[in-house]
Amino acid sequence: MKLIKLIILSIVCVAVGNAQQTPADTQSKSIAIMGGTAHIGNGTVIQNSLITFENGILQNVTDYNGTEDISKMKVIDAKGQHIYPGFIVPNSTLGLIEIDAVRASDDESELGTWNPHIRSLIAYNAESRVVESMRPNGVLLAQITPRGGRISGTSSIVQLDAWNWEDAAIKTDDGIHLNWPNTFSRGRWWLGEDPGLKNNPNYNNQTSEIEAYFNNAKANSNSTKAKLNLPLDAMRGLFSASKTLFIHVNDKKGIVDAVEFSKSQGLTKTVIVGGYEAYKIADYLKQNDIAVMLQRVHSRPNSDDHDYDLPYKMARLLVEAGVTVGLETSGDMERMNSRNLPFYAGTTAAYGLSKEEALQLITLNTAKILGIDSNYGSLEIGKSATLFISSGDALDIRTNNLTNAFIDGRKISLETHQTELWKRYSKKYENN
């Protein structure tokens, strides 16, 4: 019996040791951050700032002149440091996969082609070790997005310090994700075909299937006598404009076809995700008020005749044309790479954007695209106190070093399993 108790106790201790940092308590006292350089997120910079917040809401964001009464507040001296709104990573599978090799921990996709009713939020693991590793780089919010199928499912937006998905959610079921067919396909070399690119022979049939599905969904949405149909019912929000249609597509023709399709369906909230060739039709996207969640910046060009730095300067080309641009991180090991979001923005600054324009790509622009800009994305009075302080430039991997971070005014832990290991092994040879 004692042995059994000992075994159970050991398991519990291991579980506790492997658990996420305990979510922070609700803000109980007003906080003032004084003297730091505040990067507002809308292009404005306040060199010597005073930021105060109470009950998780920003009360004051202004120049610090030393006359304000902050005697009853908890004061954080941020002189020589930088203050930023929390970074937002869209189109992410954070919390949906823990270990790729363990099938039971993989909830990123479902079987089937048409899955608009699949809600990624209820599969989100708020206690994921991967999720907590985002926070030391300033990534505090995420759009949790399913994968697979023609329609992957419905995404939701969460903050990254919670016990469970209910506590984490800040906007539920914000949009539906459609994977647009490729206009080109590669030959099947294993069958003796030319492995080069060729027109996709099934493209027209695939787009016709999408049109038919949306027509059925629209008819279902307009009917007052329709029987319960979970997939079609999940589409209602697209036609009432309470949900956004996120179309994952990269090539020029596909982007144009996808936008025209959206217009033909009467949809008013459409976003292009990926958008590798979006720069070729930037004026068209601007005219149609289409935002772009641009593919991972640290990628190679897709073709031998493309500029070597095309992925680095795509954001600049679109921003110069007036397109609203956010950055996403999907691709190989995307969950891990989500923590590099600020450094992707830093690369766009090195290739033509100003630092404040680059910052907007992962703060206010993304908040606007996701429809959460009334509360998040910038340091403005009345918005959520979701922000962090860094001793260096948050867009520079060499100097970004968070000293404090807050989500809805709650001071969150910046400790993770990785920081624990770093602290442990950084001392290994100190006395040798």
Description:
- This protein has 432 residues and is of the alpha/beta class.
- The protein has 2 domains: 22-86 and 378-414, Urease, subunit C, domain 1 (Roll); 87-376, Alpha-Beta Barrel (TIM Barrel), CATH 3.20.20.
- The chain is 28% helix and 23% strand.
- It is built from 14 helices and 20 strands.
- It has helices spanning 2-18, 129-132, 165-168, 203-222, 230-234, 236-240, 252-264, 282-287, 310-320, 334-337, 341-350, 355-360, 364-370, 417-426, and strands at residues 31-34, 37-39, 45-46, 49-54, 57-63, 74-77, 82-85, 87-92, 139-144, 151-159, 169-179, 184-186, 197-199, 244-249, 270-274, 291-294, 325-327, 387-390, 402-407, 410-411.
- An 8-stranded mixed beta sheet has the order 8-9-10-11-14-15-16-17, with helices on both faces. A 6-stranded mixed beta sheet has the order 3-2-7-18-19-20, with no helix packed on it.
- The longest helix is centred in the middle third of the chain and has 20 residues, at 203-222.
- The radius of gyration is 23 Å and the shape is globular.
Write the layout of secondary structure elements.
Layout: H1 2-18, E1 31-34, E2 37-39, E3 45-46, E4 49-54, E5 57-63, E6 74-77, E7 82-85, E8 87-92, H2 129-132, E9 139-144, E10 151-159, H3 165-168, E11 169-179, E12 184-186, E13 197-199, H4 203-222, H5 230-234, H6 236-240, E14 244-249, H7 252-264, E15 270-274, H8 282-287, E16 291-294, H9 310-320, E17 325-327, H10 334-337, H11 341-350, H12 355-360, H13 364-370, E18 387-390, E19 402-407, E20 410-411, H14 417-426
